[in-house]
Amino acid sequence: MNYSNIISLLPYKKPFLFVDELMELNENGVKGTYRIKKDEYFFEGHFPNHPIVPGVILIEIMAQIGLVSMGLFLTDPSERETVRPAFSSANIDFLSSALPNDELIIESRKKYFRFGKLKCGVSCAKKDGTIIAKGELSGVIIKPNQSI
């Protein structure tokens, strides 16, 4: 199934859009991919001559695929274009590193979605199955004219 409509609703643009494909998406979870390009802007300083994806970028990749994409899917379709996602917490363990040209596979499973708050168990792995990071992410869906 093609989930490009959900990707088009994400509030990110290049160079800060970290979703290539959503392979699975339903009310219980999501699976998507992002390939780390060798010319990503953050490699200029992290680290010159030995590029490694910063942990905060890995969390962002996991959040865009495993939290925001799923949150938009779970939101009433009539409200999807007007809501704003807001990241609220992360508890992530880093187990390996991500390098240029690595294809990352993000899998997320909903723990709960209530009162606009989504909490998920999320993992990030290389295509060969090596787990890079895993843990929990939470966020909220903010409706127009709503404050948090």
Summarize the structure.
With 148 residues, the protein is α+β, with helices and mostly antiparallel strands.
| Rounded average pLDDT | 94
Enumerate the spans where pLDDT stays under 50 for 5 or more consecutive residues: none
Q: Fraction of residues in helices?
A: 10-25%
Class of secondary structure makeup: alpha+beta
Beta-strand fraction estimate: 35-45%
Give a short account of the largest sheet. Answer: 6 strands, antiparallel
Report the total helices.
2
Give, in spatial order, the strands making up the sheet with the most strands: 1-2-4-5-6-3
What's the shape?
Answer: globular
**SSE series:** HEEHEEEE
Rg over CA atoms, rounded to whole Å, is 15 Å
Terminal residue distance: 34 Å
Q: Using DSSP, what is the number of strands?
A: 6
Task: Describe this structure as you would to a colleague.
It is a single chain. With about 150 residues, the chain is α+β, with helices and mostly antiparallel strands. The chain has two helices and six strands; from the N terminus they run αββαββββ. It has a six-stranded antiparallel β-sheet, with helices on one face. A hairpin with a 2-residue loop joins strand 4 and strand 5. The chain is globular, with a radius of gyration of 15 Å. About 30% of the residues are buried. The model has no long low-confidence stretch (mean pLDDT about 95).
